[in-house]
Amino acid sequence: MADITLMPLTLDDREQFILDNQEVFNCGALEEFGRQDDHFEEEGEIISRETIERAIDGGEVYRIMLGGRKVGSMVIAVDGKRGGLDLLSVSPHLHSGGIGYAAWCAVERRHPQVALWETVTPSFERRNIHFYVNRCGFHIVEFYNSHHPDPNTPDSEEEMDGQFPDGRFRFEKRM
Asked: DSSP letter at 145?
């Protein structure tokens, strides 16, 4: 397992944190769809600034550090015995090196009181699905799509038809 540390986000790093997340998410979409991708939340970005800022403002925000270098980022939200993974990204140049898994294990150690973790990912993100299910022990518990919209997302039906026409999976991990 990679020897990583989670460093809380500093105010002076907020802008770069947003840009880094957009870059990683765009790489994932480019890998899946190529240049013809039309799954953007905002012009040219698979994940919008607004989405990232909303996650930052509502959660615990960390830079994933490896040997003093910023190699990823994470946003979680914890409310008693429930936790949510809002964002997790690792530099595309370092994928499959155990960094994401080590970061997830660090979160679990940091929050032993959490009995149920949740996250959501688009169905086209095969790497994410593999990571959450096969590496981290999550289970797919729901499939949001145009016939079954996410009740927690106000514009879910339009989102399904536009950005995620193939739907999104919701995952849970019971501790």
From this structure: B
